[in-house]
Automatic annotation (TrEMBL):
The gene is tyrS. Keywords: Aminoacyl-tRNA synthetase, ATP-binding, Cytoplasm, Ligase, Nucleotide-binding, Protein biosynthesis, RNA-binding. It catalyses: tRNA(Tyr) + L-tyrosine + ATP = L-tyrosyl-tRNA(Tyr) + AMP + diphosphate + H(+). PROSITE patterns: AA_TRNA_LIGASE_I, S4. Gene3D superfamilies: HUPs, RNA-binding S4 domain, Tyrosyl-Transfer RNA Synthetase. Catalyzes the attachment of tyrosine to tRNA(Tyr) in a two-step reaction: tyrosine is first activated by ATP to form Tyr-AMP and then transferred to the acceptor end of tRNA(Tyr). Homodimer. A motif ('KMSKS' region) lies at residues 228-232. L-tyrosine binds at residues 35, 168, 172. This is Tyrosine--tRNA ligase. Belongs to the class-I aminoacyl-tRNA synthetase family. TyrS type 1 subfamily. It is found in: Cytoplasm.
Length: 419
């Protein structure tokens, strides 16, 4: 059986690690307890957080016990950013987001059995902690010169950084110490952008309790041009279906670049590496079919939103481009797909025509261009070629009495909502 570290390595999931041999020995000796943390600085987690959740799941499948920390106290401050001070949210908002994120992360791990996951909140050990005790018991272990040398701090020294954000590393390090003492936690995982905070916790445990613990960081997931993966033209790709619809979520994976799709398959799915290699070879032979992207989108959407939503998103993706029946789509899925495609709003009182829809949806830049598209046979309404540019969008031309899918050529799709 493949050792979990070897599997993580083969999937490209290890960017940094403390003593690799010592960690391997600890993982091999028997079940360990490990943790990964999430700060509620937004109402939902996003694709970057998903990588951490799935890494925690891989370790659990290998027989180890996860602690999923949602930072009720660290979320009140926020990890320092290079761009400037974070906006502090109210305590009530953070508490609400703690509950939402705790619900999200718990769906990806098993909570029963000897390796059942536990949800923890760092507000439990900070709420009653006095400033004096914090400075005496935690602060004394942190040399200021080393804190100043941290990249995110040094980059902010000229523009300014508050003592609140400067002290964030102490709070996150204390989380590791508390979980080590309370639960026997000996490994923290996280993203490579958290490596400084994670290793600070390792050092705090060494200084405070004279114990050796471990750390492991996953790489930053990027696009081919080096920019962060998980951002689209419409913004961050969230795990919450209210913030990013399952269709939009599915589309974010379908659009994966050819040069990166195999990497994403290894990192974000539980497919065997041999199967991924076969998909990669098949994709290299027939890239136009985008089989690897379609499998990636189906697998990750199923993980996050369930098999039914993944199937609906796949059906919608095909139907919008004429490869399926639009009438088979639930209205909610159709609406989400058209909004993602940039659907325009038109008033029924204005009796909008096909020409109006082509212009409003942005598929043509003028009414004359819209008329040419219809005359050339390149305009479609609900996947039916349009012949009359002045036909009013009403009655049978509307899906669910509201929507019309507008297409120009084979690839340019949008829509309108008639209200």
């Amino acid at each position: 059986m493949t050792h979990v570290l070897d599997d993580l390595d083969a999937r490209g999931l290890i960017a940094h690690s403390t003593d690799r041999d010592a960690l391997r020995a600890e993982l091999s000796a028997g079940p360990i307890t490990y943790y990964v943390g999430f700060d509620p600085t937004a109402p939902s987690l996003h694709i970057g957080n998903l990588l951490q959740i799935l890494t925690a799941r891989r370790l659990q499948l290998a027989g180890h016990r996860p602690l999923l920390l949602v930072g009720g106290s660290t979320g009140l401050i926020g990890d320092p950013k290079e761009a400037g001070e974070r906006i502090m949210n109210t305590k009530e908002t953070v508490a609400e987001w703690v509950d939402r994120i705790a619900s999200q992360v718990s769906r990806f791990v098993d909570v029963d059995g000897p390796t059942g996951a536990a949800l923890v909140n760092n507000l439990d050990w900070t709420a009653g902690l006095s400033t004096i005790d914090f400075l005496r018991d935690i602060g004394k272990h942190f040399p200021v010169n080393r804190m100043l040398a941290r990249d995110v701090v040094s980059s902010r020294l000229e523009s300014g950084i508050s003592y609140t954000e400067f002290s964030y590393v102490l709070l996150q390090s204390m989380d590791y110490l508390e979980l080590h003492r309370r639960h026997g936690c000996v490994l923290q995982t996280g993203g490579s952008d958290q490596w400084g905070n994670i290793t600070a916790g390792v050092e705090l445990i060494r200084r405070a309790d004279a114990h050796k613990v471990h750390a492991l960081a996953t790489p930053l997931i990027t696009k081919a041009d080096g920019t962060k993966f998980g951002k689209t033209e419409s913004g961050t790709v969230w795990l919450d279906p209210e913030l990013t619809s399952p269709y939009a979520f599915y589309q974010s994976w379908i659009q994966a670049e050819d040069s990166k799709v195999a990497e994403y398959l290894r990192q974000f799915t539980f497919l065997p590496l041999e199967e991924i290699a076969a998909l990669e070879a098949e994709h290299a032979e027939k890239p136009g079919l985008r089989l690897a992207q379609r499998r990636l989108a189906a697998e990750v959407t199923t993980l996050v939103h369930g098999a039914d939503e993944a199937a609906a998103a796949e059906l919608a993706a095909g139907a919008l481009f004429g490869r399926g029946e639009l009438t088979d789509l639930p209205e909610q899925t159709l609406a989400a797909a058209l909004r993602e495609a940039g659907a325009a709003e038109l008033s029924a009182a204005d009796r909008p025509t096909i020409v109006d829809a082509l212009v409003a949806s942005g598929l043509t830049d003028s009414k004359s261009a819209a008329r040419r598209a219809v005359a050339d046979g390149g305009a479609y309404v609900n996947n039916v070629r349009a012949s009359d540019p002045d036909q009013v969008l009403e009655g049978d031309l509307l899906l669910y009495s509201t929507w019309a899918v507008i297409r120009k050529g084979k690839r340019s799709v949008s829509g309108v909502r008639i209200s």
